[in-house]
């Protein structure tokens, strides 16, 4: 019989923690530089049920920062590449794949059908991001939302705080503005960087998939955002969250 693969984890969080994580159901929306790493960290911690969502395929420009992006996977669907990896980590994982960019109506449908303990918002476009946060908030489902990892290079400035405490992040500013119109100004845990964004790294786009611009990125910053998001979920589930910060 194979050695119990979560032996080291159990030493830290005990059998009770292992049982909690194995019975938890988590939704990860967006499998780019943040979400792909977050999903992997969740799987390696022993999360038992996961739904992953992304409608994108791997692009050559993803290789600098995204876990599923390799020269051999260019053109493949991110959901499929990530799913294969997650199932290789934990063959007992109950995994649902949704290969699409969720519109607001589908977000409601997915959230109503999932009984999720936690949602990880790893979307990098404002409109769908805000729609997901609102949908989660209205259903009283806990959510951690990743803000902008672009234009940043100092890992020591990455923090997890309530959305009203975010700073030096253009994406967070826009999200706060839109949420305020919905009478939501706090109660959303966010991963963000307090580092001032490098404006010289900004590039405009044609607006495909809700994106009008993007900042330059380095390999480790999106990954640490994903790490913090996964840690927030795992620590909350096993009752080690520092939610009062």
From TrEMBL:
<dbReference type="InterPro" id="IPR000594">
    <property type="entry name" value="ThiF_NAD_FAD-bd"/>
</dbReference>
<dbReference type="Pfam" id="PF00899">
    <property type="entry name" value="ThiF"/>
</dbReference>
<keyword id="KW-1133">Transmembrane helix</keyword>
<dbReference type="InterPro" id="IPR045886">
    <property type="entry name" value="ThiF/MoeB/HesA"/>
</dbReference>
<keyword id="KW-0472">Membrane</keyword>
<dbReference type="GO" id="GO:0061503">
    <property type="term" value="F:tRNA threonylcarbamoyladenosine dehydratase"/>
</dbReference>
<keyword id="KW-0436">Ligase</keyword>
<protein>
    <submittedName>
        <fullName>tRNA threonylcarbamoyladenosine dehydratase</fullName>
        <ecNumber>6.1.-.-</ecNumber>
    </submittedName>
</protein>
<keyword id="KW-0812">Transmembrane</keyword>
<feature type="transmembrane region" description="Helical">
    <location>
        <begin position="20"/>
        <end position="43"/>
    </location>
</feature>
<dbReference type="InterPro" id="IPR035985">
    <property type="entry name" value="Ubiquitin-activating_enz"/>
</dbReference>
<dbReference type="GO" id="GO:0008641">
    <property type="term" value="F:ubiquitin-like modifier activating enzyme activity"/>
</dbReference>
<feature type="transmembrane region" description="Helical">
    <location>
        <begin position="213"/>
        <end position="231"/>
    </location>
</feature>
<feature type="domain" description="THIF-type NAD/FAD binding fold">
    <location>
        <begin position="12"/>
        <end position="240"/>
    </location>
</feature>
<dbReference type="GO" id="GO:0061504">
    <property type="term" value="P:cyclic threonylcarbamoyladenosine biosynthetic process"/>
</dbReference>
């Amino acid at each position: 019989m194979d050695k119990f693969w979560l032996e080291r984890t159990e030493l830290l969080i005990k059998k009770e923690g292992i049982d909690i994580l194995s019975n938890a159901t988590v939704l990860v929306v967006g499998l780019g530089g943040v979400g792909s790493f977050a999903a992997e960290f969740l799987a390696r911690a022993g999360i038992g049920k996961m739904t992953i969502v992304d409608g994108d395929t791997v692009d050559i420009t993803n290789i600098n920062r995204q876990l599923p992006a390799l020269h051999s996977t260019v053109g493949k669907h991110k959901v499929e590449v990530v799913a294969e990896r997650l199932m290789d980590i934990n063959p007992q994982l109950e995994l649902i794949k949704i290969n699409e960019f969720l519109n607001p109506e589908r977000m409601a449908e997915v959230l109503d059908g999932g009984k999720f303990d936690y949602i990880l918002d790893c979307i990098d476009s404002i409109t769908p991001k805000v729609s997901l946060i609102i949908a989660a908030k209205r259903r009283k489902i806990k959510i951690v939302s990743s803000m902008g990892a672009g234009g940043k290079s100092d890992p020591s400035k990455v923090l997890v705080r309530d959305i009203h405490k975010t700073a030096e992040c253009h994406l967070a500013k826009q999200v706060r503005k839109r949420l305020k119109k919905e009478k939501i100004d706090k109660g959303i845990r966010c991963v963000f960087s307090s580092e001032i964004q490098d404006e010289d790294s900004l590039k405009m786009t044609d607006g495909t998939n809700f994106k009008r611009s993007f900042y330059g990125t380095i390999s480790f910053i999106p990954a640490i955002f994903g790490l913090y998001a996964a840690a927030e979920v795992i620590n909350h589930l096993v009752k080690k969250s520092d939610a009062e910060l």
